[in-house]
Amino acid sequence: MGIRILIADDHHVVRRGLAFFLKTQKEIEIIGEAGNGREAVELARTLKPDLILMDLVMPEMDGIQATKMIKTEIPEIKIMMLTSFSDQDHVIPALEAGASGYQLKDIEPDELINCIKKIMSGENQLHPKATSHLLANLSNKESNERNLIDQLTKRELDVLREIARGKSNKEIASSLFITEKTVKTHVSNLLSKLELADRTQAALFAVKNHLVE
Fold this sequence. Notes:
Distance between the termini: 48 Å
Order of helices and strands: EHEHEHEHEHEHHHHH
CATH topology of the largest domain: Rossmann fold
CATH superfamily of the largest domain: Response regulator
């Protein structure tokens, strides 16, 4: 059985062009076309395609919203964004929604087939422009987190490390030879400085930024 593909794009000419080309590939079967995001979700539910070629900007529901709904309900469906936008305001949300690929519509036909095959084999396929925006976003995020860490005092860092080790306020107080009231003050201060909601987020933040082994 070939790769069963659903095409979602609000431009009829684009859908027809993609379908015409992909139907020439023996290993690919076009099982449906959607003209908007809501229709893409409905067809995904009924047709259960292997992969969806998803446009970003569509009426009724955009590609990111549709991707998020589909991946939540039917996570095994692979989704590749096929769009004209390469800025990080579109790339990052699309990947966070669950897209396995992000390609621009100027992609060469042979490269499109190659991307589809690689996505179906479990790889992620990003256009070079999308990759550069993703790396820039990660770099900016890491830089921002490092700046937040630099705001902490040495004692607040000590408390953060103890939180990441799963210790209670009483245990932290005993370990650092301070009162529980002082621990509570440090916890409140570090959560505020790191822009975190609770101790669990603080523990994850500490581990992610290699503040504890």
